[in-house]
Amino acid sequence: MKPLHRLLALALAVSMPGGVALAADLRVMTSGGFTAAYQRLGPQFAAASDNTLSTVLGPSMGKAPQAIPNRLQRGEPADVVIMVGYALDELIRQGKVAADSRVELADSRIGLVVRAGEPKPDISTTAALKKTLLAARSVAYSDSASGVYVERQLFEKLGIQAQLAPRGTMIERIPVASVVAKGDYQVGLQQVAELLPVPGVTFAGKLPEDVQSVTRFAAGIPTGAQHPAEARQLLDYLASPQVQGTVQATGLDSVPR
């Protein structure tokens, strides 16, 4: 067992009554921005705790049936939800997630991709980003937090809303980079952690900080969770200092503590 796994297993054991960690099948709903980190860290938690993780993916908001709020509205069971912080806060306000369970996980910034083989565009400054977007035949962005910002605020900040309106498309549910990789769109904008895992694209970089939007990802425990104690252990692990190297490797930034 790796050192990190041993430490985690010890922490889990002493946190349970009688020092015995009881296995549970945790149902986890996670949205795109933290998914790459979760896919690396989840198996480590499962191996050390003897719990199993049953995971479904879906955006933090939007009209898609797969969106986490819509899943909960239909009564789908969940022990943990991982999503955009302000969308989680709305679920807390509605009484669907326990307020005292909220844990902040990571910050996510928006980046840009083009199809692999295409020249890598310059987006190092606001002026360069504006020039790149104006030159694009088509621009794709997500139906979650980053795409809402791109469509409603970024284009306006750059003064190109009128020009980009007929060329911009909000992509539901699937990764934006996947439609860029197929050549359906020339440029794709989404959170970096959702762009990097997709093959067939070239990552141009993060948006300049003066027009960047930082999305805080957080997690919580739904009020009807069947395994709240084990869910809390998972959340504590995902936010722990020991895993921040893995979190950062997926394109996310650690939350200042």
Arithmetic mean pLDDT:
91
What is the CATH class designation of the largest domain? Alpha Beta
From the coordinates shown, what is the CATH architecture of the largest domain? 3-Layer(aba) Sandwich
CATH topology of the largest domain: D-Maltodextrin-Binding Protein, domain 2
Q: How many beta-strand elements?
A: 11
Strand content: 15-25%
**Radius of gyration from CA coordinates:** 19 Å
- What is the first-to-last residue Cα distance? 29 Å
Low-confidence stretches: 13-20
Q: What structural class do you assign from the helix and strand content? A: alpha/beta
Provide a quick synopsis of the model.
This protein has 257 residues and is α/β, with parallel strands linked by helices. The protein has helices at residues 3-15, 32-49, 68-73, 85-93, 126-135, 145-158, 161-164, 176-181, 192-195, 228-238, 244-249; strands at 25-30, 52-57, 80-84, 103-108, 110-115, 139-142, 168-171, 187-191, 201-206, 215-220, 253-254.
Tell me about this structure.
The protein is α/β, with parallel strands linked by helices and 257 residues long. The protein folds into two domains: 3-107 and 215-254, 3-Layer(aba) Sandwich (D-Maltodextrin-Binding Protein, domain 2), CATH 3.40.190; 110-211, Periplasmic binding protein-like II (D-Maltodextrin-Binding Protein, domain 2, 3-Layer(aba) Sandwich). 39% of the residues lie in helices and 22% in strands. The chain is built from eleven helices and eleven strands. The strands form two sheets. It has a six-stranded mixed beta sheet with strand order 2-1-3-10-4-11. A five-stranded mixed beta sheet has the order 7-6-8-5-9. Strand 1, helix 2 (32-49) and strand 2 form a beta-alpha-beta unit. Helix 1 packs across helix 2 (32-49). The longest helix has 18 residues, at 32-49. The protein is elongated. The model is unreliable at 13-20 (pLDDT under 50).
